[in-house]
Each structure stands twice: as C-alpha cells, then as structure tokens.
C-alpha cells in the first residue's frame, strides 16, 4: 500500500511487530473498501436489508482500525486476538457504536436524504415509523451491552500476563464505545450547540429536508 509509505507509518513500524502491522493493514483496507462500496452503492441507489447492512457497517464505521491502536500497549498474540470470544466482544462493541452513531446522525442524514442508517433499514424491513425504529434500536443496544458484559466474565484463564493484557485491551474497547457517545453529544457534528440538552431530555426535532 503506497499510502503506508509515509513518515507516520515509517515511524509506526519502528516500534510495532509484524503481526500488529499486518492486522492494522487488514482492518484499514477493509475500512477503505467499505467506503468505496458505499460510494458505489449511492451511485446506483442500492438499499440494504438489515443483515447485509450490519455486515457492511461493521467495516464502514471505522471501529476495527481504531481499536487496533489500543493493542499497541499489549501486542496480543494471535491465539488471544483471534480467540472467538474476544472477536465476539469486539463485534458487540462495534455494533453498539453503529447503533449509537446511526441514532445520533439520523437527523442530519435524513435532512440531506441519506438512507445509509440503521433506522432507515429497520423502518423499511419491519414496517415501523421513526419512533418504532428508535425503540427497536434502543432494545437492541441494551441486548448488546448485556452480551458484552456477560462475555467479559466468560473469558478463559490464559495465565496472569495474558489475562492482564486481554482485560486491558477489552477495557479500552469498552471505553471506545462510551467515548464515541460522549464525543457525539459534546461536539457539534450532529446536534450543533444543543448536544447537552438533547443528551439530557433524549428528544430532538427533525430538521427540514434540504432541497
């Protein structure tokens, strides 16, 4: 990848393992591919069902190339990183970020006619109105949070050093979910200056459609 021949990458490879570098390249390539797919789909007006949407959005949301950076503190071996339970926990976290982000971004997206949003998908697939889709998303979000916490308590015992590493890594993954939510309200990207008020009352007024 020519893009990785820049000074930032050259500095990164000085202090990272080949295993970590390969993981980063893999997750970032998947992220870039998903964004290319999004642009292509918009050109032809493609609309996904829920299963297809989630599979695509898990790459497009950018969670995997972000949380791979947390691993720099631990440099997890493949038998830990690729452990099915670890991957399931990371997928739970990713799905929570997807739901959070799509709820937060829905208003500005609907105003510009963007339908790449889980609320649009759910409304179409289950014949729901917007409030029904929000209720569905809230219930699904709670299920994911419960699954995330439950899986954390089911991690195998791998030895003191490995246990410390994996708990630290997955703690950071969980903090990424919370951090994304806090940032979404505190920045003006989705709610303008009304973020704190919307966070408190959980209500927003739909923006008019842009012509």
List keywords for this structure.
mainly alpha; Farnesyl Diphosphate Synthase; 10 helices; Terpene synthase
Overall description:
The chain is built from ten helices and no strands. The termini are far apart. It is 70% helix and 0% strand. It has a single domain (18-201), classed as Farnesyl Diphosphate Synthase, CATH 1.10.600. It has helices at residues 7-12, 18-44, 50-60, 63-67, 78-81, 84-111, 118-126, 130-152, 160-186, 195-201. It is an all-alpha fold and 211 residues long.
Number of domains: 1
Provide mean pLDDT, rounded: 92
Q: Can you tell me the residue ranges where pLDDT is under 50 for at least 5 consecutive residues?
A: none
The termini sit apart by: 40 Å
Short account of what is shown:
With about 210 residues, this protein is mostly helical.
Any chance you could write out the topology, listing elements then pairs?
Blueprint: H1 7-12, H2 18-44, H3 50-60, H4 63-67, H5 78-81, H6 84-111, H7 118-126, H8 130-152, H9 160-186, H10 195-201
Helix pairs in contact: 2-3, 6-8, 6-9, 7-8
GO molecular function, one term: metal ion binding
GO biological process, one term: isoprenoid biosynthetic process
InterPro entries: Isoprenoid_synthase_dom_sf, Terpene_cyclase-like_2
